[in-house]
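Dear V.,

Thank you for sending over the compound details. I've combined the ligand you provided, thiamine diphosphate, with the protein sequence from our construct and run the structure prediction for the complex. I'm sharing the raw inputs here so there's no ambiguity about protonation or stereochemistry in the SMILES, which I know was a concern on your side last time.
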Amino acid sequence: MVVSRAEHDRMANAIRALAMDAVEQAKSGHPGLPMGAADVATVLFTRFLKFDPADPAWPDRDRFVLSAGHGSMLIYALLHLLGYEKMTIEEIKRFRQIGSLTPGHPENFITPGVETTTGPLGQGFANAVGMAIAERHLAAEFGDEVVDHHTYVLASDGDLMEGISQEALALAGHLRLNKLIVLFDDNGITIDGALSLSDSVDQVKRFESAGWAAARIDGHDPDAIAAALERARASDKPSLIACRTTIAFGAPTKAGTEKSHGSPLGPEEIAGARVKLGWNEPPFEIPADVRVLWRKAGQRAQGLHRAWSDRVRSLAPDRRTEFERRIKGDVARGKLTQVVRTVKEKLAAAPKDIATRAASEQALEALAPALPEMLGGSADLTGSNNTRPKGMSVLSAADYGGRFLHYGIREHGMAAAMNGMALHGGIIPYSGTFLVFSDYCRPAIRLAALMGQRVIHVMTHDSIGLGEDGPTHQPVEHLAALRAIPNLMVLRPCDAVETVECWQLALENRTGPSVLALTRQNLPQLRLGHDDSNRCAAGAYEIVPADGTAKVTLFASGSEVAIAIEARKFLRAKGVAARVVSVPCFELFLAAPEEVQQPVIGTATVKVAVEAAVRQGWDQIIGSDGLFVGMAGFGASAPYKDLYRQFEITPEAVADAALRALGKS
Ligand SMILES: Cc1ncc(C[n+]2csc(CCOP(=O)(O)OP(=O)(O)O)c2C)c(N)n1
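Below is the predicted structure of the protein with thiamine diphosphate bound, written out as structure tokens.
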């Protein structure tokens, strides 16, 4: 849609006015960015972005990611002006209020038209890289006629200063994601003042060195913005457009200063801005001519949407069904159940004493061919975390149809890109690294949990059991730290059977991320004989009953379940009946009603938990008077059996603790 310069200015000023007024009414928020980036956004949304307000979830829409989430009023103003039905002027007036569609930072699960939750700087940009990968991958699989869209990002200085941006841009450049276009709001201002206080990076050179096309333009010149976007769309590389803007453009004294970044402008400044911008409307009023122009912009892609729907309808019936299933995110349950059953039947017939990381690889070998939506990857270490099953081809710039991504040593960028893939739809991303490096993924995992996205992290080398690499690599507090994240499922299987059951739970968990914590060291298979039900689904269950009435219950997860079972034998030799409960997932167990939990916790007076990690969190299961055998500090470098002895995580130590509590030692 081409508009005159005067029309453009009025359209952009409508964004500026809504941002000033909403922040003023809320008495909090960030007017500077929406006012500064209004011209860039107006050109993008009126001339380039492909979207349909009548169907915010249209699968082939262009994605727009406001990585600088603090500028949320920019996207809310756009959604309102473009005619997204739910984004009424009342919602704009309720900016930052309880239950509104206009929360402080954009939340994809609250506001239709918001693609991802942003706020922690850098995350949105890295999400967008994942979205752009997903687009190319699905286009390779289903064809350009049904998957063909761009991913646009609006990023601020802060987004590009955060370390994650380096991981994201390097990956995008390497994969030549030419449909990814980043508009950099190059305003030279952060909260502390001028960017020059803390930064002197030449962003254009930085991006160019990573394989991007990059240009600098005047971010208040609509023709320059449009020309740069045209060039970016024609490029065979991802593009950065550094748009030189003035923060809070139009504000008489605060424009160009940090004073406009994060607080209301104040009535006087707003009155002055109205004069300067030639905007004479009362707060929250949009004149009819401007409203008509914006509505027209909102209807631009209706024809494209219809044509796309026709193309989907004309796919071969099986391809269409598959495409629609993938976009909905429905896992073929029948297939999944069948694969899990087959793996478990094989393990029942020929038990395997293997590390759970190896069991996971075997599970993947069966799961990946059955579930084409699984897109694997690893932050290097692939051979150690066993995430690339045989036959899975590599996704690269030369072949976007591959299903395994070498993310490089970029855990944070990987986790954030996976969020973007899950948000894009059509893909279940899974990854690999060591559990200790979950710290490097944590900000993105937290956001996956907040957004309710199905991403699966395989994290191996899950305790001192990794041995000689020593305490830098031995997680001790990580299980507790991950369990502290709401809506994250932390799964720690004890053997090959539990491993495939945990994979099933992670794949079926549509509303949140999962971490599979797996061992480096071999473990005995403890679940013998075939059981069709997924016992891990309970979160905790009795894996070995007591002989007679239990005096002791031993709880353990992962590699320590075998230790607990050995300890039970010691106790039996001393005439003490003990039962063992395997606890592969706290979250599932603690979500169960008390009448389900109680029989698992049991009535034995002595409760002992065994986990080669810190105690934090276990009291919810064993009570504050329960006994704990685990780690109280960092590990050490040695063969793992020596470490278990050194830190007294042994069957004897577990049995002794129980006997002491019974007054029998
Ligand atoms: C990871 C992270 N650290 C800190 C913040 C707090 N914060 C919000 S905006 C901002 C920087 C503002 O500078 P810039 O990104 O240039 O945005 P602008 O001032 O241009 O709106 C900071 C530090 C954040 N949102 N995320």
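A first observation: The first helix runs from residue 5 to 26.

Warm regards,
I. M.
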